[in-house]
Design brief:
By secondary structure, this protein is α+β, with helices and mostly antiparallel strands. About 40% of the residues lie in helices and about 25% in strands. The chain is built from 11 helices and 11 strands. Strands 3, 4, 5, 6, 7, 8, 9, 10 and 11 form a 9-stranded antiparallel sheet that branches. The chain has a two-stranded antiparallel sheet with strand order 1-2. A hairpin with a 2-residue loop joins strand 3 and strand 4. The longest helix is centred in the middle third of the chain and has 19 residues. The protein starts with a strand and ends with a helix. Keywords: DNA-binding, Transcription, Transcription regulation. InterPro entries: AraC_XylS_family_regulators, Homeodomain-like_sf, HTH_AraC, HTH_AraC-typ_CS.
Length: about 325
Amino acid sequence: MVSSLGSRGQAEPDRSAPSTQDPQDARRGGRAFRRLVGTDVDEALSFFGGDYDFRAPRVRRTRQRPQWDFAGVGDDRMSLRSSRFYVDLRTESVVDDQFIVAWLRSGSSTITFGGRSVQLEPGVPVVLPDAYELHHRDIGLNLVQLDRAHVRAVVGDPEFTFDPMRRPTAEGIRVWQAAVRAHTSTWLDVEHELGPAAERTITDAFVTAAVEAFPRRDRWQSAVRGSGPEHDRLRRALEFVHAHARDPIGTPEIAAAAGLSARGLQQSLRRHLDQTPGDLLRGVRLDGARADLLRGDRDATSVADIARSWGFGHLGRFSATYRERFGELPSESLRAR
Protein backbone atom coordinates (compact mmCIF):
# COMPACT_ATOMS: atom_id res chain seq x y z
CA MET A 1 0.00 0.00 0.00
CA VAL A 2 1.36 3.42 -0.94
CA SER A 3 -0.34 5.51 1.73
CA SER A 4 -3.49 5.73 3.78
CA LEU A 5 -5.99 8.52 4.44
CA GLY A 6 -7.88 8.53 7.71
CA SER A 7 -11.36 9.87 8.26
CA ARG A 8 -10.04 13.44 8.16
CA GLY A 9 -7.84 12.77 5.14
CA GLN A 10 -4.58 12.43 7.01
CA ALA A 11 -2.14 10.80 4.64
CA GLU A 12 1.51 9.97 4.94
CA PRO A 13 3.73 8.23 2.39
CA ASP A 14 5.03 4.80 3.31
CA ARG A 15 8.18 5.51 5.33
CA SER A 16 9.49 2.03 4.52
CA ALA A 17 10.08 3.17 0.96
CA PRO A 18 13.67 3.96 0.08
CA SER A 19 14.51 7.64 -0.27
CA THR A 20 14.90 8.25 -3.96
CA GLN A 21 14.58 10.99 -6.49
CA ASP A 22 13.38 8.58 -9.17
CA PRO A 23 9.67 7.80 -9.38
CA GLN A 24 8.60 4.29 -8.52
CA ASP A 25 5.86 3.70 -11.10
CA ALA A 26 3.72 0.60 -11.36
CA ARG A 27 0.31 -0.38 -12.61
CA ARG A 28 -2.27 -2.77 -11.25
CA GLY A 29 -5.20 -3.02 -13.63
CA GLY A 30 -6.17 0.52 -14.65
CA ARG A 31 -4.46 2.24 -11.71
CA ALA A 32 -0.91 3.54 -11.70
CA PHE A 33 1.01 4.58 -8.61
CA ARG A 34 3.98 6.84 -8.06
CA ARG A 35 6.11 7.46 -5.00
CA LEU A 36 8.95 9.98 -4.77
CA VAL A 37 11.07 11.26 -1.88
CA GLY A 38 13.85 13.81 -2.13
CA THR A 39 15.69 16.88 -0.87
CA ASP A 40 16.58 18.64 -4.14
CA VAL A 41 14.35 21.71 -4.60
CA ASP A 42 14.93 22.00 -8.35
CA GLU A 43 13.95 18.39 -8.84
CA ALA A 44 10.82 18.92 -6.77
CA LEU A 45 9.85 21.95 -8.84
CA SER A 46 10.41 19.98 -12.03
CA PHE A 47 8.12 17.21 -10.81
CA PHE A 48 5.36 19.29 -9.21
CA GLY A 49 5.56 21.96 -11.90
CA GLY A 50 4.94 19.37 -14.58
CA ASP A 51 1.96 17.88 -12.80
CA TYR A 52 0.38 21.15 -11.67
CA ASP A 53 1.55 23.56 -14.39
CA PHE A 54 3.57 25.85 -12.13
CA ARG A 55 4.40 29.11 -13.87
CA ALA A 56 7.32 31.27 -12.73
CA PRO A 57 7.74 29.57 -9.32
CA ARG A 58 9.64 31.45 -6.62
CA VAL A 59 11.14 29.43 -3.78
CA ARG A 60 12.68 30.44 -0.47
CA ARG A 61 14.22 27.85 1.83
CA THR A 62 12.69 27.53 5.29
CA ARG A 63 15.21 25.03 6.63
CA GLN A 64 18.77 24.02 5.92
CA ARG A 65 17.76 20.71 4.36
CA PRO A 66 14.50 21.00 2.38
CA GLN A 67 12.40 17.86 2.12
CA TRP A 68 9.66 16.83 -0.24
CA ASP A 69 7.74 13.68 -1.00
CA PHE A 70 4.80 12.53 -3.09
CA ALA A 71 2.60 9.45 -3.24
CA GLY A 72 -0.32 8.93 -5.58
CA VAL A 73 -2.54 6.31 -7.20
CA GLY A 74 -4.73 7.10 -10.19
CA ASP A 75 -6.27 6.12 -13.48
CA ASP A 76 -7.76 8.14 -16.33
CA ARG A 77 -10.74 9.28 -14.23
CA MET A 78 -9.37 9.87 -10.73
CA SER A 79 -6.15 10.27 -8.80
CA LEU A 80 -5.62 10.30 -5.01
CA ARG A 81 -2.46 12.12 -4.02
CA SER A 82 -0.54 13.11 -0.91
CA SER A 83 2.49 15.42 -0.85
CA ARG A 84 4.79 17.43 1.40
CA PHE A 85 7.05 20.29 0.34
CA TYR A 86 9.06 22.00 3.06
CA VAL A 87 9.85 25.34 1.44
CA ASP A 88 8.19 28.72 0.99
CA LEU A 89 6.72 28.51 -2.55
CA ARG A 90 4.91 31.15 -4.59
CA THR A 91 3.73 30.41 -8.10
CA GLU A 92 0.86 30.57 -10.55
CA SER A 93 -0.96 27.39 -11.55
CA VAL A 94 -3.50 26.47 -14.21
CA VAL A 95 -5.91 23.50 -14.24
CA ASP A 96 -7.32 22.63 -17.66
CA ASP A 97 -9.15 19.32 -17.56
CA GLN A 98 -9.70 18.33 -13.92
CA PHE A 99 -11.55 19.29 -10.79
CA ILE A 100 -9.10 19.21 -7.86
CA VAL A 101 -10.28 18.81 -4.29
CA ALA A 102 -7.57 19.83 -1.81
CA TRP A 103 -7.26 19.84 1.96
CA LEU A 104 -4.36 20.89 4.12
CA ARG A 105 -2.70 18.55 6.63
CA SER A 106 0.04 20.86 7.87
CA GLY A 107 1.74 24.15 7.13
CA SER A 108 -0.05 27.07 5.51
CA SER A 109 -1.41 27.73 2.03
CA THR A 110 -3.09 30.78 0.51
CA ILE A 111 -4.88 30.64 -2.85
CA THR A 112 -5.46 33.91 -4.73
CA PHE A 113 -7.86 34.14 -7.66
CA GLY A 114 -10.40 36.57 -9.04
CA GLY A 115 -9.02 39.39 -6.93
CA ARG A 116 -9.42 37.63 -3.56
CA SER A 117 -7.28 35.43 -1.34
CA VAL A 118 -8.44 32.40 0.63
CA GLN A 119 -6.36 30.58 3.24
CA LEU A 120 -6.78 26.81 3.35
CA GLU A 121 -8.04 25.50 6.67
CA PRO A 122 -6.50 22.28 8.02
CA GLY A 123 -8.80 19.35 7.31
CA VAL A 124 -11.37 21.40 5.35
CA PRO A 125 -11.64 20.32 1.68
CA VAL A 126 -12.26 22.83 -1.11
CA VAL A 127 -12.30 22.73 -4.91
CA LEU A 128 -9.40 24.67 -6.42
CA PRO A 129 -9.96 27.30 -9.14
CA ASP A 130 -9.00 26.77 -12.78
CA ALA A 131 -6.28 29.42 -12.55
CA TYR A 132 -4.78 30.85 -9.38
CA GLU A 133 -1.72 32.02 -7.50
CA LEU A 134 -0.58 29.98 -4.53
CA HIS A 135 1.62 30.60 -1.55
CA HIS A 136 2.60 27.36 0.21
CA ARG A 137 4.77 27.28 3.30
CA ASP A 138 5.98 23.91 4.61
CA ILE A 139 2.81 22.23 3.44
CA GLY A 140 1.42 18.75 3.78
CA LEU A 141 -1.45 18.47 1.32
CA ASN A 142 -3.97 15.88 0.13
CA LEU A 143 -5.56 16.05 -3.31
CA VAL A 144 -8.27 14.18 -5.18
CA GLN A 145 -8.18 14.91 -8.89
CA LEU A 146 -11.34 14.11 -10.86
CA ASP A 147 -11.47 14.13 -14.65
CA ARG A 148 -13.70 17.05 -15.59
CA ALA A 149 -15.34 15.36 -18.58
CA HIS A 150 -16.20 12.31 -16.47
CA VAL A 151 -17.74 14.42 -13.70
CA ARG A 152 -19.87 16.24 -16.24
CA ALA A 153 -20.94 12.95 -17.81
CA VAL A 154 -22.01 11.58 -14.42
CA VAL A 155 -23.90 14.79 -13.61
CA GLY A 156 -25.44 14.93 -17.09
CA ASP A 157 -24.50 18.59 -17.63
CA PRO A 158 -21.73 19.42 -20.15
CA GLU A 159 -21.19 22.82 -18.49
CA PHE A 160 -21.23 21.72 -14.86
CA THR A 161 -18.60 23.30 -12.64
CA PHE A 162 -17.96 23.91 -8.96
CA ASP A 163 -17.80 27.27 -7.22
CA PRO A 164 -14.10 27.27 -6.31
CA MET A 165 -12.71 27.83 -2.83
CA ARG A 166 -16.18 27.92 -1.23
CA ARG A 167 -16.13 26.28 2.19
CA PRO A 168 -18.58 23.36 2.26
CA THR A 169 -21.22 23.11 4.96
CA ALA A 170 -20.69 20.85 7.95
CA GLU A 171 -22.88 18.28 6.20
CA GLY A 172 -20.83 18.65 3.02
CA ILE A 173 -17.60 18.00 4.92
CA ARG A 174 -19.21 14.95 6.50
CA VAL A 175 -20.27 13.59 3.10
CA TRP A 176 -16.79 14.06 1.66
CA GLN A 177 -15.04 12.52 4.65
CA ALA A 178 -17.40 9.55 4.50
CA ALA A 179 -16.33 8.87 0.90
CA VAL A 180 -12.67 9.19 1.90
CA ARG A 181 -13.11 6.72 4.74
CA ALA A 182 -15.13 4.25 2.68
CA HIS A 183 -13.00 4.00 -0.45
CA THR A 184 -9.47 5.38 -0.06
CA SER A 185 -7.80 2.32 1.45
CA THR A 186 -9.17 0.08 -1.32
CA TRP A 187 -8.08 2.51 -4.03
CA LEU A 188 -4.57 2.93 -2.64
CA ASP A 189 -3.99 -0.79 -2.10
CA VAL A 190 -2.19 -1.39 -5.38
CA GLU A 191 -1.32 -4.95 -4.38
CA HIS A 192 -5.01 -5.72 -4.76
CA GLU A 193 -6.05 -5.58 -8.41
CA LEU A 194 -9.42 -3.97 -9.06
CA GLY A 195 -11.45 -4.70 -12.15
CA PRO A 196 -12.81 -1.91 -14.36
CA ALA A 197 -16.27 -2.10 -12.77
CA ALA A 198 -14.86 -1.79 -9.23
CA GLU A 199 -12.63 1.14 -10.22
CA ARG A 200 -15.58 2.88 -11.86
CA THR A 201 -17.74 2.32 -8.76
CA ILE A 202 -15.15 3.93 -6.48
CA THR A 203 -14.55 6.83 -8.87
CA ASP A 204 -18.26 7.53 -9.19
CA ALA A 205 -18.63 7.40 -5.41
CA PHE A 206 -16.07 10.21 -5.13
CA VAL A 207 -17.79 12.15 -7.94
CA THR A 208 -21.18 11.80 -6.25
CA ALA A 209 -19.74 12.89 -2.91
CA ALA A 210 -18.05 15.92 -4.51
CA VAL A 211 -21.25 17.02 -6.25
CA GLU A 212 -23.16 16.70 -2.99
CA ALA A 213 -20.49 18.21 -0.76
CA PHE A 214 -19.18 21.24 -2.65
CA PRO A 215 -21.06 24.35 -3.80
CA ARG A 216 -21.59 24.39 -7.53
CA ARG A 217 -21.34 27.45 -9.73
CA ASP A 218 -24.54 28.21 -11.58
CA ARG A 219 -24.16 29.51 -15.12
CA TRP A 220 -25.32 33.00 -14.15
CA GLN A 221 -22.37 33.30 -11.75
CA SER A 222 -20.00 33.18 -14.72
CA ALA A 223 -21.82 36.01 -16.52
CA VAL A 224 -19.77 38.76 -14.85
CA ARG A 225 -16.22 38.47 -16.10
CA GLY A 226 -13.39 40.31 -14.42
CA SER A 227 -12.39 41.36 -10.93
CA GLY A 228 -12.63 44.58 -9.01
CA PRO A 229 -15.09 46.46 -6.78
CA GLU A 230 -17.65 47.02 -9.56
CA HIS A 231 -17.60 43.35 -10.57
CA ASP A 232 -18.03 42.28 -6.95
CA ARG A 233 -21.01 44.60 -6.45
CA LEU A 234 -22.64 43.36 -9.64
CA ARG A 235 -22.18 39.75 -8.55
CA ARG A 236 -23.85 40.64 -5.25
CA ALA A 237 -26.76 42.05 -7.23
CA LEU A 238 -27.11 38.80 -9.19
CA GLU A 239 -26.87 36.71 -6.03
CA PHE A 240 -29.58 38.78 -4.39
CA VAL A 241 -31.92 38.49 -7.37
CA HIS A 242 -31.50 34.71 -7.62
CA ALA A 243 -32.05 34.32 -3.89
CA HIS A 244 -35.10 36.60 -3.68
CA ALA A 245 -36.73 36.42 -7.11
CA ARG A 246 -39.99 35.11 -5.60
CA ASP A 247 -40.15 38.09 -3.24
CA PRO A 248 -41.65 41.50 -4.08
CA ILE A 249 -38.34 43.16 -4.98
CA GLY A 250 -37.37 45.77 -7.52
CA THR A 251 -34.53 48.09 -8.46
CA PRO A 252 -34.23 49.79 -5.03
CA GLU A 253 -33.87 46.49 -3.16
CA ILE A 254 -31.40 45.06 -5.70
CA ALA A 255 -29.29 48.22 -5.65
CA ALA A 256 -29.21 48.31 -1.85
CA ALA A 257 -28.11 44.66 -1.67
CA ALA A 258 -25.28 45.39 -4.12
CA GLY A 259 -24.15 48.58 -2.37
CA LEU A 260 -25.04 50.71 -5.41
CA SER A 261 -27.38 53.55 -6.16
CA ALA A 262 -30.31 52.75 -8.44
CA ARG A 263 -28.57 54.64 -11.25
CA GLY A 264 -25.27 52.91 -10.53
CA LEU A 265 -26.97 49.52 -10.74
CA GLN A 266 -28.58 50.43 -14.05
CA GLN A 267 -25.29 51.62 -15.51
CA SER A 268 -23.35 48.60 -14.27
CA LEU A 269 -25.89 46.10 -15.61
CA ARG A 270 -25.99 47.86 -18.96
CA ARG A 271 -22.22 48.02 -19.21
CA HIS A 272 -21.50 44.39 -18.31
CA LEU A 273 -24.64 42.41 -19.18
CA ASP A 274 -26.54 44.74 -21.54
CA GLN A 275 -29.61 44.47 -19.30
CA THR A 276 -31.80 46.66 -17.15
CA PRO A 277 -32.71 45.64 -13.57
CA GLY A 278 -36.17 44.79 -14.87
CA ASP A 279 -34.71 42.57 -17.61
CA LEU A 280 -32.58 40.74 -15.04
CA LEU A 281 -35.40 40.15 -12.57
CA ARG A 282 -37.87 39.09 -15.25
CA GLY A 283 -35.40 36.63 -16.78
CA VAL A 284 -34.62 35.00 -13.42
CA ARG A 285 -38.31 34.70 -12.64
CA LEU A 286 -39.08 33.19 -16.04
CA ASP A 287 -36.30 30.62 -15.60
CA GLY A 288 -37.64 29.74 -12.16
CA ALA A 289 -41.20 29.38 -13.45
CA ARG A 290 -40.03 27.16 -16.29
CA ALA A 291 -38.14 24.88 -13.89
CA ASP A 292 -41.27 24.52 -11.76
CA LEU A 293 -43.45 23.81 -14.80
CA LEU A 294 -41.09 21.17 -16.19
CA ARG A 295 -40.97 19.23 -12.94
CA GLY A 296 -44.58 19.86 -11.91
CA ASP A 297 -47.39 17.32 -11.87
CA ARG A 298 -49.81 18.49 -14.55
CA ASP A 299 -52.77 17.06 -12.62
CA ALA A 300 -51.84 18.90 -9.44
CA THR A 301 -50.07 21.99 -10.80
CA SER A 302 -51.64 25.18 -12.13
CA VAL A 303 -49.87 27.49 -14.56
CA ALA A 304 -51.57 30.42 -12.83
CA ASP A 305 -50.32 29.34 -9.40
CA ILE A 306 -46.74 29.01 -10.64
CA ALA A 307 -46.92 32.37 -12.40
CA ARG A 308 -48.18 34.10 -9.26
CA SER A 309 -45.52 32.39 -7.11
CA TRP A 310 -42.85 33.99 -9.31
CA GLY A 311 -44.35 37.47 -9.20
CA PHE A 312 -46.32 37.47 -12.46
CA GLY A 313 -49.74 38.94 -11.69
CA HIS A 314 -51.14 38.99 -15.24
CA LEU A 315 -51.43 35.49 -16.71
CA GLY A 316 -51.81 36.65 -20.31
CA ARG A 317 -48.68 38.78 -20.26
CA PHE A 318 -46.81 35.99 -18.47
CA SER A 319 -47.77 33.48 -21.19
CA ALA A 320 -46.75 35.85 -24.00
CA THR A 321 -43.38 36.69 -22.39
CA TYR A 322 -42.78 33.02 -21.60
CA ARG A 323 -43.48 31.98 -25.19
CA GLU A 324 -41.19 34.70 -26.54
CA ARG A 325 -38.33 33.45 -24.34
CA PHE A 326 -38.77 29.67 -24.58
CA GLY A 327 -40.65 29.12 -27.82
CA GLU A 328 -43.65 27.42 -26.21
CA LEU A 329 -46.55 28.24 -23.92
CA PRO A 330 -46.32 27.57 -20.18
CA SER A 331 -49.05 24.94 -20.51
CA GLU A 332 -46.96 23.10 -23.11
CA SER A 333 -43.98 23.01 -20.74
CA LEU A 334 -46.22 21.57 -18.02
CA ARG A 335 -47.61 18.88 -20.33
CA ALA A 336 -44.11 17.93 -21.51
CA ARG A 337 -43.29 16.33 -18.17
